[in-house]
Every structure is written in structure tokens, then in C-alpha cells.
Amino acid sequence: MALKNDSARNEFTPLFTSSLRNKWLTFFLLLGTLATTGCSGCFEGAETVEERQKRLEKEETKEDFEPPKLNVLPSDDRKTRLNRVKPGHWTNVSTQMKANNFDFRGELYAYTVSQNSPVPIRDTDYYFSSTRPLALPKGKERWSDVLFYPPLFNQNNKSTRMFACDLRPAGGGRAVLVDRLPTTRMHKQEYYMVVLASSADAYQFLEATDVIRPLHDLNSAEETAPHYRLILPKVVDRVAVPENSMAWTSIAYVFWDDIDPNMLSLDQQQAMLDWLHYGGQLIISGPDSLNQLKLSFLADYLPAEDTGSIELGIERFAEINDTFVQEERIWEQGNMNTYRYTIKLPSGPLRGSELKLHPNAQYVPNTGDLVAERHVGRGRIAVTAFQIRAPDLSKNWKNFDSFFNAVLLRRPARDFKEVQGASEIVTLWADREAFNDPRRVTSLRFMSRDLSNNLPANQLKDAKLLVKTSPDSSAKPEEGTVTDLEELRIRQFAQRTPSQNNNQALEEQALREAIQRQDPNNLYSGFGYDDQSGVAGWNDKSGISAAARECLRDAAGISIPNGNFVLRVTAGYLLVLVPLNWLVFWLIGRVEWAWIAAPVIAIFGALFVIKLAELDIGFARSRTEIAFMEVQPNYHRAHLTRFTSLYTSLSTSYDMLFTESTAVALPFGRSQDSQSNQARRFNSGFSEVQYRQEGNDIKLSGLQVASNSSTMVHSEYFLSSSSQPVFQWNVNQEGQDQLTYGSSQTLHDVGIVRRNARTKAIEVAWLGDLEPDSKQKVTFSKPQDEWELFPQWLESPVLSLNRAAGEVNLRHLLNAVKEVKHLNPGETRLIGWTDEDMPGLTISPASSQRTIRTMVLGHLSYGEFPVPKADLHTRRVGGQEPAQMQAIELDLLEEATN
């Protein structure tokens, strides 16, 4: 019998097999599936770490600008660069910036600050700022270089300075980004040595040489900073050297080893050529370099070409060993033994190049024809047949430093001496000249910056010449002219401030240093140096600057119309207003119209009078300019220095626009006996003068000139005269030399002076006027007087001893450049002047009265290089390596790890 439950179950079972039951089953199944799907679909699964990081980065609000990266050029990636800045030398700062959230157009605004205040330019009423427009596309990094001037320090001021760089909107307003870059001051003898190499790190051995870091007595008060700061930039996509020629003045040497010359921009290439022609030195490691350079911007200046690879065995270095290696007594195991540390090649012959000399080049004497060199203007290019960084030479040869100093750098011989009472060695020059003299650290020179100021002595010579050439014995020098050397010395001493005279020892030391800077023994061709900037720095107290300032003092002012001019203009005006006016309208039968024409005639008459009198409406402006143009042999660019005096009878703000991208300009510093009147007249302190760089145009603005006063501006730039050299000098052994002049200005009162290379005698040749694109045969003779040189100069109103009324006289400038004792054997100079305005400068507002004179100095040739001399002793003069060398190595290790 069946159970009830079973019967019930059996009765219910058919429900699931019916059509209705199938529909309900499908409904419940779909509902369950939907609910299950909804649980996983309504709630997201666990977020991965990468997804969360991307989401947070997307949601994060970025700063508008990335912190800028500032580097003083030249620079490298090492931690030891410290952004070193040399006072008085224009400096390029490279800036890397990025805008994150939007495109930005603005400008970089740079200046020097100390204790949160702008640093004024010494001996002026201004402080300096530099600006440059900058466009930052969103999210992209942009490099931009800004040029700025680090002012000289005032006496006894050693406060820390910082380079300030602000990013400002284009339309003005508050800075959107502010950054301060601490800088380290470079001393007068410190210059950069830059290595441009594919393996720059391989040249780090130079850092530990006693050439880069001379040995000093640590107890001495003498400055112990090194002579050179080694820069080893990694050449990848850009080369970290300045693009403006004016920013290369702190670079003494460049080493070149196996890099593509096209890595340098066109501006950097031109800057290097300018630097070379005015005294820079380029040393090329021949193998792997010469073939890359033979079609480059340096091709026309190379001293040799590579004709094939060779092996350099030990016999090729025999002459170098004989000249630059000497016997040394070395302590070894308690005994003093004698050694000669010659070049050895344990790894076998070196890979080298067979050099073929250029006709204008030479092999460096005593180098076995392994080093060639050539003049490039005042500068030099040298090339080696071997790799300079070869370990058997650079690291294993203990006399490499002497060879490096004498042959590669072309510096005078040195000596080493033990310090009494100390286990130290000091480095000296063999001739015992001041060891930190910057004139022996770099050969870079600009006459407008570096020529010594001998103005008082030159005035003395002119006074004696005036007495000599006067037709009667009653002629006397101008009032205030010194006529005796002893009187000159007394006056120079009296000009020193009382505080300087209080301490006799300090006074004598300062006087000795001042005399040394004036080059009394003519060791440096008349070039001096500044005790802060060294040589090649911006200098308002050089011989050329002092002479130009004196010329401007004599010529400053405006020409006021005299009484005769007023009478003539008044008579002419009345003649037109009455008789001619009446006659014209009487002829046409309208005499009554003469009354209508009278006011019109009066207005045009007034404008005509203004034009004739060279006056502006209500006030007058005047521009007087003395310029100095220096040209190097066989070069198409000249270094032009302008000293501009701007006068106004009503306060005016002047702007100076330069079309040369290398232009730099600053207010001209006052002399010691001048006092400031700008600040007093404007009832304010220092005002801002702004240097703006935009493309190839340079603008100096903010030059405020008070009523009835003047201001002076000092500007410099490289001027390209044409594609041809300005001066080409061809020497004929038969005595008929030829000069080719390729510029567009007519030169007047041209004379050529030289010191004969064979006889050492002074010889002169008079040319007179020199027309553009002309050639002249030149014949030399001996001058009657080596100070007068040419009698024609005394007859010229521009060069005579007595300044003619209304003439701008260049006598002081002439005296600075014609001193024959500064000429070395084989050196030839051309001297002349022009009254044509040199291109490249526009001043606004324009001056109605304008007088411009430019002294032109052309270097036609230089003498031969001297024979290099080995050091008298090595640093092991005490029988062992000096203790300072270990200290130097520890310092380098510490700098590298900090």
C-alpha cells in the first residue's frame, strides 16, 4: 500500500512536466541569472595597482611650471661645477623650463642679487637686468640662454651673490616663477679649460696635474685658487658652451677630441672663431679628429691635415724625452737615487696620424714633428699626431705636466721650490714673475679692455713733443700738463685716497701691484689686467677707455648758434614774410591774400630755423661718440667698441638698438675724479638699465639723462664687414709688401708701423687715405722720432697735439695704440681713423647734433712663436711627490662624492 506522502509527491510531479510549469521554471532561472549578473556588474572588481596609479596621476593637479634648471655656461654634469662666475665677464646662463597645464608666452628676467637687493654696476648710477622672450608649449621642455653681466665687487665687499631668474607674463605683471641660483666667484687667475670629446671622462686626469692646480704655500696670504677650472661636457644633443662670442672671455683653452663639429650650433661655431682670432687656443687630439674637421668651420684654420694612420714607436718620442725630461734625485728606501722619467710604451706603439703641414703652420720645436701649430689671428690652433689621452703619455709619464705646460698650452717655463720649515713645494715661474698673473694663464686679449692706462705718461711725452716741434721756444704745454717724470709720480701718489696712505706697508704693496699691472718691463706687450676680472673682462678703466673718456670730455656738449647765424636767419625770415610775400600775391592780383599767408610763412619759417639751428622744439640733444675698432689678420669680423656721450637740455630716456646679436652695452663707468649727478638730479638711488635680447636684435633701455647733463654708454660687438677679410697682408721679401683693404669705410691718416723681425728696428710706412676695396704697395723706412712716427699726424685736425675748435680729437687714443715698445719682432700694425658711422646701432630719440670718430687698428701680422722651454725642476725637487698632491687627490675625491 502506498504512503500518502508518496502519493502526494507523485501527484505533484506532473506539474513540472507541464507547459505552464516549464514557463515558471524558465522565469525563475532567468531571474536568478539576472540577479547573479547584477551583483558582479553593479560593483567593480578590485582595482590593480597600475590602474590606481594612472588614475591618481590623471586626477592629480600639477604645478603650472616645473622648477627651472639653470646652468652657467660652459658647464658639465659633474657635481663640482658650482656655477662659477667670473666678475666683469659677460656670462651665458642656460635655462630649461616646462609649462604643465597650458601654453605660456612670457619673458625671462635675470639680474644679480646680494642680500635680496639688485647689485649696482660699479662707478655708475644703475643696476643691470637682462630679459629675453620665451614661449613654452604645454608639456614640452624648452631650453633658452640668457646673457647677463655679473658686476665687479666694491672694495672689501665679499658678500655672496646669486643669479636671479624670474619668469614673467609677456604683458607685464607679477612673476609666475622665481628662482635663485647660488654662484661661486672666480678669481682673477681662474679661467675655464673646456674639453669637447666623445669620451670626455677620459680627460679627468688633467684635474690632478700641477698645471691645472699649481702648488701653493698653504701658509701664504696669496690666493690659492687653481689656474683652470676643467669642464667636461657630455656631447649628446647639444654642447654646453656659450652661443655669444662675448661670453667666451672666461675660457682660456678648448681641447677637441673626436666629436662631430656639426654638434655645435652656427652661433657657437662663430663664437669659437671670434674667440680664436682674439687669443683663444684650441688643442686638437689629431687621430679621429682631423678627418672630421677638414670640411668643417675650422677647415681654413687647421695647421695640418691627416694623410694616414701610422704607428708611433718609442723612437718618435726621443726628441721630446731629450728636451722635457731631466735627471731627478729621488728618495728610495733611505737612499737618494737618480732617475730620468722618460716616455715608455709598454703596450706597444701608439696609434697616430701622419701630419702634413699647412704653408702657414709650423711644427712645435723639439717635438719630433708630432705637434703642429698655426696662428689664427692673435690665437692659436695646435694639433697632435698622437692621442693626448693615451695612458702611456697622460698617466704613466711622470713628466707629462712639463710637456703639457710648455708645448700644448704654450706657457712660460716653471720652477718648483721647497718651502723653508715645511714639507711643501710651491710652483713658481722660472723668471720669478707673479705666479697668479692672469696674463700668463690665458692669451685672450682685447685692446679696448686690456691695454694698460698710460694716459699721464703719454701726456708727458706729448708735452715734450709740443715743445720740440713748436716754431718758437716760447711754446708751452697746455695748463695742467705734467712735464717731469718725478712730478708725474708725485701726482699719481697724491691721487690716492687718504685712507690708502695711512698704512705705509699696504700702500707700498698696492703701488707695486699697480706698477706690475702696467707692464713696466714690457713682458706683455703693454697689456695690463684688472685685480678682479683679470684679462679680457669688461673694463671701463683700461687705456682705451681712459683715452676715450678724455676725448669725450674735450668734445662734449652742443653747438650753440652764434650771433651772425641769428642775424642771417632773422633777415631771411623778414625778407620772405614782407617783400616776397607781397610780391607773389601782387603778381596774381590778390594782395589781400598776403595777410592769410603770413601765419603760414611764420610756422614754416620757425620749422626751418629749428632745422638750421639743429635744435628740437624747446630743447636740444647731442650725440658725441668715440669708437675703437680692432681687426685681426685675414679676418672678416672686427671687434668694435663704442663710447657714446648723450647730452640733453631736457630730461630724456634713451634707448639703444643693436642689430648685431653679439652686442653688449652698459653705462660707462665714471673715472676716479668724477662725481655722480644723475641720482642727485632725479632725487633717487640706483635706476634700472635693461638689456633685452630678442632674436638677433639687442636693446638697451632705461638710460635716464637729467636736464642739461649728459651720460656715457660703453658698448661692444663683433661687426662683419664683408665676406672678405678686412685687411690682407702679403709680405714680399724684396721690400714691396702689399695691403688689401676690403671694408666699406674710407680711412684717413693711415700709417703702418712694424718691428722688423730680423733687425728688431722700428719701421714705418705712410698711406694717407685708404679707399674701400683697394690695394696698395707698401714701402717701409725708419722714422725720425719713434714717438712722433709720422709728421702728417701732427698736421691732422683729428690727431694733432692741439685740438682745433669744433673738432673731435683722437690724440689720446692714438697715443694708446702707437707705442712702439709694445711691438714684438715681426709684429705689424695699421693705424687710421674714419668719420663714417659704423653700422649696427640706432639711438632713439635721435640727436640733431651728432659727431662720430672711430679709431681703426688693424693687426697685419704677428711674430713667430717662441721656442717652448721645459721646467727648470719638477715638483719632485724634494726627492718625492709633494704632500700637496695627495691633498689635491683627496679634494677631487671629496668633490666627486659630495
Automatic annotation (TrEMBL):
The keyword Transmembrane helix applies. The chain crosses the membrane at residues 565-588, 594-613. Keywords: Membrane, Transmembrane, Transmembrane helix. It comes from the Bacteria. This is Uncharacterized protein.
